[in-house]
Specification:
CATH architecture of the largest domain: Alpha-Beta Barrel
Number of domains: 2
Largest sheet: 10 strands, mixed
Shape: elongated
CATH topology of the largest domain: TIM Barrel
Distance between the termini: 32 Å
CATH superfamily of the largest domain: Aldolase class I
Strand content: 15-25%
Order of helices and strands: HHHEEEEEHEHEHEHEHHEHEHEH
Structural class: alpha/beta
Bound molecules: iron/sulfur cluster
Number of strands: 12
Length: 350
Amino acid sequence: MSHHSLRRSSTTDSLAGHTPDRLSRILPLDTSYRSSQVFSWIHRGAASFDEMTNIPKTLRTTLAGTGIPMYSSRVTGTQADPQDGSVKFSLELSDGAVIESVLLSDGKGRKTACLSSQAGCAMGCTFCRTAAMGLKRSLSPSEIAEQFMHIRKMAADTSHIVFMGMGEPLANLESVKQAVEVFHHPESYAMSHRRMTISTCGIPSGIRSLAREGPPVRLALSLITAREPLRESLMPAAGKFPLKEIKEALADHQARHRQRITLEYVLLKGINDTPEDIKALARFASGLQVLVNLIPWNPAAELPFTEPAKNDTAAFAKRIMNAGLNCVTRYGKGRGINGACGQLAAQSAR
Ligand code: SF4
């Protein structure tokens, strides 16, 4: 849909990003039963066709003979955060590009995979360190699907997915949609659409596409502020889309899928914490059913922003609620990752 998607890798896509239906068009599989078997093995992380023991040996040999790789990424490192229990995965893709995914666990034991949709990002948000990398390229469906496969191999009880890693998911929407199909399939993870969230900086055409064609995944918008000139200075590319258009697209999504939309609000001291920001936020949210996710700026990132004091954050949250909006404040766990899509790479780039 945007020029970003044209920059997809030219390397052969592996099998992991394809549903059984698609697999049957790529591989010499003559029944849907066999396609489902192969699909299921791939998402259990089988290392080779030879491991697919419920498939006749001759067919396994034929499949291996096609030379089409099952996977197009490998884990080059994992790093656990002893404080919050999150695990960061570094992945190398077949052309040498490096991306990251994170396994997050919250206090209640719920595990969420935070996936990347692009290597780098073209959006240039000033509070995000992925932005500094620029866009290398968009990821293929397999490269997205495999991130989850790797995470599930470590933690089989990972039950949720957020597209909040590197990149703008709606700038690579076709691949993201295809990966979502894989995750949702009963022969892989059978993940409900309601357990998957696409976090976007707000591309109206992409939101409308999800509204009209689905899949009915949840939406989160990195709002940051609803004061338009300020938003444009903080998010130079995303800020080009009028908030009015973004809101209309969100309303369309909500009308069709009846799901609460999350507004991500990274609180930057002295910047988006004024009474005008509250007013603008309330105006933007009126008529929508939203949850404001307030994330005090994480001072660890080497960017020119300041963390708000704890009581100022609490006061801001109170004002949001006084304006009639639901609001939660995220400290600690997964913070910096939940903030906005690129915060993930921001931390690892250090
Ligand atoms: S916050 Fe998201 S959209 Fe903005 S530059 Fe970072 S990765 Fe891209």
